[in-house]
Amino acid sequence: MATLVLDLRSSNTVTHVHAHANAMNEFTKRSELCFPIYLIQFQVYETMYTINFPYRRQLQVARMLLSNQNWSKESIKSPSVYRVGGNKKHIKIPLVTILSPSIRVPINSNFQKPLKGLVPKDLADRLTSSRNQIALLAQQTDVSAVPELLRALEEYLPLLIGLTDQELGFRELVEFKWKGLDDRQEISVADSWFELLSVVHMMAMLTLMEANSKLIPNQTVTTEEVESTDNIRCAVDLLVKAAGYLQFCLQEILVRIPPHIKMKLPVDLQENVIEAAYIQALAQGTEMQLASAVESKNATLSVKRRLACEQLSYFGQAHYCLSTCDNLNGYGKKHLSFIKWKYLEAKAAAYYYHGLITDKGSEPSCHISAVCCFLAAEAILTESKKACLNFCLTLPITRAPTAWGAMKHLNKKVPETAAKKSQMYAYLLEQEKGLEVVPELPEFELSLKADEYELPDKDAAWESEEWMIPNQTLRNHFTDDEGDDK
After folding, report:
1. Which end of the chain is more exposed for a tag (fewer CB within 10 A), N or C?
2. How do residues 295-321 score in pLDDT, each as one tens digit?
3. Per-residue pLDDT tens for 46-58?
4. Distance of alpha carbon 101 from its chain centroid, rounded?
5. What three-state secondary structure class fits 228?
């Protein structure tokens, strides 16, 4: 029985014959129960999908997904992936090529009371001012102000490092409060190494956001295509920089945080999640390199296959790290669905290029293996489009850009090659049915490495030997504390 639905590409209605059950089930779980229920169509890459959605919100979804029209906070409960601040009246569905898994921002604090009588007042004021400036920028700006926010974090670090100095003994004096922009979950920990972890992690997430903005500078258009080779090269530099921040978190900061504090850390600051984000950054850097290789006339099939296989290995490791985490929140599930989508794309690319190389052999078994590779690539490519849809619909809702780089090429070439080679070697497949086994993909040493990150030097104010801290009687100290409480 045909079902009347809205064609989101125009104002006219069309007759729909087939519904994708998986897409409907996935989306209705996230939808409000409201009747009557209609089916809605929209497009991911070149494929038309249909989903089940409440009637009173279907036009909003249509315009959001395809024309990026604003939604009010009442229409969508979860904030956008690429909003840094939380004071916007309207939220836009972002285009995502490089995913920033989560972002956590500081809550205003005052260093004067916990450090009173221990450090000079002007130093405590600088700490308070610098940290509160970060909190202010994070709440009132969007992705366009990421460079300014990164500068503020870099200026705060030399001051913060003094609090981590074991000799000074200030590590547990100040309570640091942070909140997530996705779930508004707050955490408060009296440990300066936790603060350092949060700051460097925030720098990594902002750098990933900046890399995405290099590839898709205009978030307001319907089908933004990824930008030029120069921007892709710039994005690779930012990805390995973000990987360096995350690697530093894993190797230099988390190891200094005691177990009882680690148990309280939010999901996005847990070791496996940070490791998954670190590996994902390298995987997407390799994805950018493959995109450049596909566009290059000088890149050989061997180079393209190696990059595709490396990308597959990276995403496989990232998926393993994230899938072992317990209690993944909304952003964690979004992150996992993104990695699965990219893993399938990389696997399709790897089988396609491996098939092209294998087909150059002269033995019948080579041609049969090649056909198996092409057919596997075609099947995996179809699954990757479903995974892309699942990622887009996993809250918070996002959009995928028009196919670009290797996928723009593969979306056309894989089905064509699979059909052509299947017909060409049909007689071999009939004769040698026992050889119809998908071959193992070759393994390569992973070549892309993170940029090494080092903390800046401690601020000179911490090195001063002539701190002028006024003497204070116990009575005056209590009096001052009472005044602060007021």
Report:
1. N
2. 888 889 999 999 999 999 999 999 999
3. 444 444 444 334 4
4. 4
5. coil
